[in-house]
């Protein structure tokens, strides 16, 4: 219950979370004695907001925690201490004690340096802010402080204020706000500067201006709608399929009977309101994901390409599949349905809302896997998720609202029966196939490359033929009748799945050209194959660099433009572009002969060398710790090209000038060819 309440609070804070930043951090280091120092992190909190203490009960609220990056030359002394006016009170909302600070709090961490040399102290803080109405989503900050040991520096208490210095990330110094009046025992003071000189190196390129390319006359921006229409249609079809499951279909006549009992006028009005509430509830479910997107513009890409999350999706979809096979049911807690059902009896508009909510809750055992599939497919973009859920909700609203307006249509509906269980089991096979898609994505992002393309395809072939055998009655599940008759429709559908299996078979054999183009983006890429020993072999045999600056050197040597390809291991549209468009003979020739390709993977989880793990100050003033290759290229794309979508293509000269407008997303061959010709011709004209 506490977790549900917490989620609700996060949802209600959706709008505020996108624009509020009511906390300001300052950091400093002071010399205590000999080789002992103290790092002080000060949080200045705006009025009406509070910051949770490290002593807060985890699972109820988000405690403030400091993590110090290990350094063999620095020894931490004790735990991080909080200095401020701590407030402890009992929360009726959480049914627990909460501990927090208002206005200002300092965090002190003592440490000892083991070598008398300049060192860096690196720390990350994770925290959450709330006021009396909303909570902002969990946030964080990174600090790098430079320690420059200096002996025999003693400052009297009276002169402390004279040596205070102000800092911003760009000024490379730290503001000393530590007042000796509060710490009279400290007499030796050393102001330590921040190591921002390495910040932004090789990340922000000053002369890259995405809005002012050299040639504005050709290669106009391709306006991307991110496939919203297709995502909406996908959700709509998913909603229609869910309506045919045994959890939902029998509820149609039961629900419609409520409206037929009312007067004709009120019945039609209530039917429209009821249909609206169904759609509204589906949309409401997506608000938390917009909240997450408001925190960090590339968070959805990070989530969708997270190895552990994709492994979790793999397990969840296996669980969904066996639920559809009839071995168990997945349901929401009964108390949710009971409370919603009782609330629906109140009548009026509020009663209609709870009727719609009850419908969604009690049908969860069948719709949950369908909605889960939509969620997993749409998680790269919250707007796509809203469009998908809107499509699903609209399908339900049209069916339930339509039958409520015209109850005579119920007579034409087929009766409930075993056919609904057949649909449910077939959906189980679909869920099983999708499970391996997420296992493949985890495998690609982790760069283990264990699930080869041919193995993946073989699994799908087995699933396709198993589905056909089930439809022919040769495989039985718990809810199937042992003496059920196999009708014509089941035989027709079994033939369809047999054809799918046959279509997949060529994918088991090596081919110079991409096959199975209809499944491009779903199957592992061509170079993850049992027939190719070198897992790093370039896509389609092209020579591809994976570092922008290495590509820049080659471009200068060969006097060619660079095609910057922002991509991802888990990016389906990137694979589609490579297998549908790049593989075309004329496009391949251009890519092979006229440009230097730099494919930058924004979801590469491999850690950068320690010396390259830096903190970058973003355009919005926030600091971002760059730890992995994916972090580096994700920030590189966002800060230089104002985009965080993939695929994203830019043509750049060897001296870092953008040739024409970038393009994004999956596009037709001719559009991509025009983009390439435009930029390459512009580059050739520059050389004349």
TrEMBL record:
<feature type="transmembrane region" description="Helical">
    <location>
        <begin position="387"/>
        <end position="410"/>
    </location>
</feature>
<feature type="transmembrane region" description="Helical">
    <location>
        <begin position="349"/>
        <end position="375"/>
    </location>
</feature>
<keyword id="KW-0472">Membrane</keyword>
<dbReference type="GO" id="GO:0017004">
    <property type="term" value="P:cytochrome complex assembly"/>
</dbReference>
<dbReference type="Pfam" id="PF13899">
    <property type="entry name" value="Thioredoxin_7"/>
</dbReference>
<dbReference type="InterPro" id="IPR036249">
    <property type="entry name" value="Thioredoxin-like_sf"/>
</dbReference>
<keyword id="KW-1133">Transmembrane helix</keyword>
<feature type="transmembrane region" description="Helical">
    <location>
        <begin position="272"/>
        <end position="295"/>
    </location>
</feature>
<feature type="domain" description="Cytochrome C biogenesis protein transmembrane">
    <location>
        <begin position="230"/>
        <end position="440"/>
    </location>
</feature>
<dbReference type="GO" id="GO:0015035">
    <property type="term" value="F:protein-disulfide reductase activity"/>
</dbReference>
<keyword id="KW-0812">Transmembrane</keyword>
<protein>
    <submittedName>
        <fullName>DUF255 domain-containing protein</fullName>
    </submittedName>
</protein>
<feature type="domain" description="Thiol:disulfide interchange protein DsbD N-terminal">
    <location>
        <begin position="36"/>
        <end position="144"/>
    </location>
</feature>
<dbReference type="GO" id="GO:0016020">
    <property type="term" value="C:membrane"/>
</dbReference>
<dbReference type="Pfam" id="PF02683">
    <property type="entry name" value="DsbD_TM"/>
</dbReference>
<dbReference type="Pfam" id="PF11412">
    <property type="entry name" value="DsbD_N"/>
</dbReference>
<feature type="transmembrane region" description="Helical">
    <location>
        <begin position="455"/>
        <end position="472"/>
    </location>
</feature>
<dbReference type="InterPro" id="IPR028250">
    <property type="entry name" value="DsbDN"/>
</dbReference>
<keyword id="KW-0201">Cytochrome c-type biogenesis</keyword>
<feature type="transmembrane region" description="Helical">
    <location>
        <begin position="492"/>
        <end position="509"/>
    </location>
</feature>
<feature type="transmembrane region" description="Helical">
    <location>
        <begin position="228"/>
        <end position="252"/>
    </location>
</feature>
<feature type="transmembrane region" description="Helical">
    <location>
        <begin position="307"/>
        <end position="328"/>
    </location>
</feature>
<dbReference type="InterPro" id="IPR003834">
    <property type="entry name" value="Cyt_c_assmbl_TM_dom"/>
</dbReference>
<dbReference type="GO" id="GO:0045454">
    <property type="term" value="P:cell redox homeostasis"/>
</dbReference>
